[in-house]
Amino acid sequence: MKAVVLIACFALVGAQPVPEKRHNILFILADDLGYGDVETYPNPTSAHGRMSTPRLKELTSQSMMFTDAYAGAPVCAPSRCALMTGKHLGHCTVRSNGPELNSTDVTVANVLGKSGYYTALVGKWGLGSNGTVASPNSKGFEHFFGYTSQENAHDYYPPFLWRNEEQQLIPENKNASRKTCGNPFTTNCVWAQDLFINETLTLLEERSKEEEKPFYIFLSFTTPHAGDVGSNKETGVPAPDEGIYANKTWPDVERHFASCVHKQDVHVGKVLDKLDELKLSDNTVVFYASDNGAHNEGGHNYQFFDSSGPLRGFKRSIHEGGIRSPLIVRWPGVVKPGSASPQRWAFYDFMATAADIAGVDKSSLPENDGYSFVPTLRGETQPQPEYVT
Question: What residues does 169 pair with on adjacent strands?
Fold first, then answer.
């Protein structure tokens, strides 16, 4: 009789449900990309045609495209503060370019890391210096490679980048300039965006070997923000070359701007291809957005490609063109491919949404201003937020 009871107990133990595998989260952020710069978003009046973004077009066909998504602010740092902390500008610590997060700020990386996620940031941080309470490592990112400073991120060919708390020198970029780097600039120098994409691909390969631990990777490009070669000035949009637009009779700065947008599209494609290669795509939720509206700096004219599309205004403006962002979300098996939603969403909603995807109890979240739009991603109807701040 005892044997029978033991067997029954073991059978019950064996019948316990296997915990659901937790989803990876990959957030890709463009810098100063306009609402109308992505081919799948409306741009009815561009006299120079649409810039080529075939991989983003493909991603959109696999995703839900949001027509009414908003960045956190019309400029970089406060927008990123909203994205990271889940707070709108009325509550954010960083409300302009320059200030840093404080010791009490809790980020998405803190939340996900505490719940068992591997967390990594590649690219532009802009919310605090190393050696302070506002550094990427201090704010929950287990791994960091990129720029901490907004201004340093203007230099597309920097003499160093940060790897966690240590400077990683880039010898090829010592004394970099438009003259010394050659034509293309990558003849003698290294474009930071290439380093970012290589770092991201390496991270994905590493994480594929530890599938029991989900990851949150924040890939934060600096393209197509204005910048320079070897300085922090904003004298153009220095892609390595003019790429597929070399034969266009446009101003030099516009050819380089378009090349930056196209090269970012190529980089996004490399990341998506790597997810496929490593069989990570089905379990990875991919977000793609821009930190604010189209810029009008470094000699670039945002109206040349009608980068704001049908919207009024551009970066630094609180009109729609300054704060409306493209938002594309791919979640295989959950999101209806090729769908579009008018659900209003802002950067400060990302914390609640990421926590929901990760299975983090919302009662454990720090105080925030956002809501989870996971029901919308699942095809359910949600009430519209009364306003966007």
Answer: 160
CA pair distance 244, 51, nearest whole angstrom: 10
- Phi, psi of 151, deg, nearest 5: -70, -45
Single-letter amino acid code for the residue at 295:
H
**3-state SS, residue 375:** helix
Rounded CA-CA distance 211/91 in Å is 36
Q: Are strands 166-169 and 160-163 parallel, antiparallel or unpaired?
A: antiparallel
Conformational region of residue 123, where left means phi above 0, alpha means psi within -120 to 50, and beta covers everything else = left
- DSSP-derived 3-state class of residue 346: strand
Q: What is the pTM of this model?
A: 0.94
Strands 166-169 and 24-30: unpaired
Please choose, from the candidates 112, 142, 147, 113, the residue with its C-alpha nearest in 3D space to the C-alpha of residue 128. Answer: 147
Segments of the chain scoring below 50 in pLDDT: 1-19
Bond prior to 184 in cis (omega within 30° of 0)? yes
**Tokens linked to 343:** 């659900």
- Are the beta carbons of 204 and 196 closer than 8 angstroms? no
Which of 21, 149, 23, 12 is closest to 80 using CA atoms? 149
Cβ atoms < 10 Å from Cβ of 282: 13
Output DSSP code: residue 60: H
pLDDT digits (tens, 9 = 90+) for 31-61: 999 999 999 999 877 789 899 999 999 999 9
Neighbouring-strand partners of residue 329: 64, 287
**How many CB atoms lie under 10 A from the CB of residue 312?**
11
CB atoms within 10 A of CB 382: 17
Q: What are phi and psi of 375, to 5 degrees?
A: -55, -40
DSSP 281-339: GGGEEEEEEESSS----TT--TTTTTTTTTSS--TT-SSHHHHEEEEEEE-TTTSPTTE
Classify the phi-psi angles of 86: left when phi > 0, otherwise alpha if psi is within -120 to 50, otherwise beta.
left
Q: Can you tell me whether residue 269 is helix, strand or coil?
A: helix
Structure tokens at 293: 């509206």
Task: Give CA–CA dist 304/300, Å, rounded.
Answer: 8
Mind listing the pLDDT tens digit for each residue in 52-100?
Answer: 999 999 999 999 999 999 999 999 999 999 999 999 999 999 999 989 9
